[in-house]
Specification:
Number of domains: 3
Number of strands: 8
Strand order of the largest sheet: 1-4-5-8
Distance between the termini: 46 Å
Helix content: 40-55%
Strand content: 5-15%
Number of helices: 14
Shape: globular
Largest sheet: 4 strands, mixed
Bound molecules: flavin-adenine dinucleotide
CATH topology of the largest domain: Butyryl-CoA Dehydrogenase, subunit A, domain 3
Structural class: alpha+beta
CATH class of the largest domain: Mainly Alpha
CATH architecture of the largest domain: Up-down Bundle
CATH superfamily of the largest domain: Butyryl-CoA Dehydrogenase, subunit A, domain 3
Amino acid sequence: MDLRYSAEYEQFRGELRAFLDKNWTDEDRATLGGEEVLIGSISKPGERVTEFRIAAIEAGYLYRNVPRRWGGGGQPFDPLKSAIIREEFKRVRAPREMVGQGPSMLVFTLLAHGTEEQKERFIRDTLLGRILWCQGYSEPGAGSDLASLRSKAELDGDQWVINGQKTWTSNAAEADWMFALLRSEPDAPKHEGITYMLIDMSTPGIEVRPFRNIVGDSDFSEVFFDNVRVPKDSIVGARGEGWKVSRSTLKYERALIGDTDIARRTFDGMVMMARALERRGKPVIEDPVIRNRLVQLESRLLAAEFHSMRLLTMQARGEEALLAGMVPKLNSTQLSYDLGKAAMDVMGGGGSLAPGEPEAPAMGMFVTAYLWSLGVLIAGGTANIQRNIIAERGLGMPRDPVQKR
Ligand SMILES: Cc1cc2nc3c(=O)[nH]c(=O)nc-3n(C[C@H](O)[C@H](O)[C@H](O)COP(=O)(O)OP(=O)(O)OC[C@H]3O[C@@H](n4cnc5c(N)ncnc54)[C@H](O)[C@@H]3O)c2cc1C
């Protein structure tokens, strides 16, 4: 396998490096380059970061596939250039594209289904992190079987009146807007009576109740709607066709969750810690049982990384990923879970000490990674649901009777 880029792409890399040298200084890197890169900030960025992002968009390096008129880089699709941009931005810890449900999911939904006014009003500010979004899909009793959702929207003159409850809504407490699925046609079959709506979170009648997750943060909330009135034109796509619209958004959510960066960081961190323990006289990598486990995990990690390169090659050739594209979410989240668990075992007795405990190895990073991995196995469609998707759509097996109803 030859993993080198052609001369044309290396020239592109050279131009990109010159851009980064000029626009993202060593001082920027030292003062601002941490969190943005490592956890992909979803909070509102500071002025300097936004200034850099605007320059990078204008140069065609960020949001390449979003048209210029809506605030993107307006470049032709070229997955190899996108891969080089990711490598180079990461190398100098420059702010990459905003992550989160707005830029990574909603923007593509609006591009496909939004009105001109919606694109004009939301896309640019969402890409720059000036508008933060949350995703109001799940409800008590409607998670995997999402189409069972019951929160309703009724048309009253030129307004929709919304009542009901959403749950597990990530970032609801910080979000300016929510994109939500609501039942607008109570008598239609369950997949056909749903409408996709944009809701200003400051509208009277919305109550956000954060709850603590297993890591101890309050990242998600329950959201209650009590006669919340939003304008008639708040819907994306046609009335009653929200299910179809939401499918395009979920595809991007799975891509967002499916990369191998977190698994790689956990693995490298675990090996680094294991070496440090060995220097202090505790045999870790030398222990044959642990060594065997590490080798198995690294093999799976390398397979996942090579699979990403395979997908990149397919994209570059214009081939549809099909089955190959359905695997990464399940694979990488399961791997992160197994890695987090192994890391706690490798650290020995102190491995499960929580962050904040003075004795916790790596400041409790591995416990946090493990506990987070439980969440990402579920978010964006559970591992079981991913298996169903692979079996039914990828391998052509009969449909799951529960989802078919
Ligand atoms: C970290 C995190 C962030 C989240 N953020 C958001 C968000 O921002 N917005 C939002 O709307 N939602 C969010 N969610 C909710 C998430 O989408 C749901 O938790 C998920 O879809 C599962 O639904 P559920 O929790 O109701 O579990 P259930 O659907 O009740 O599933 C329970 C168990 O049954 C299994 N199961 C269910 N149906 C089947 C089936 N047909 N075949 C095989 N097994 C099945 C599942 O795999 C699971 O193990 C988030 C969840 C997490 C963990």
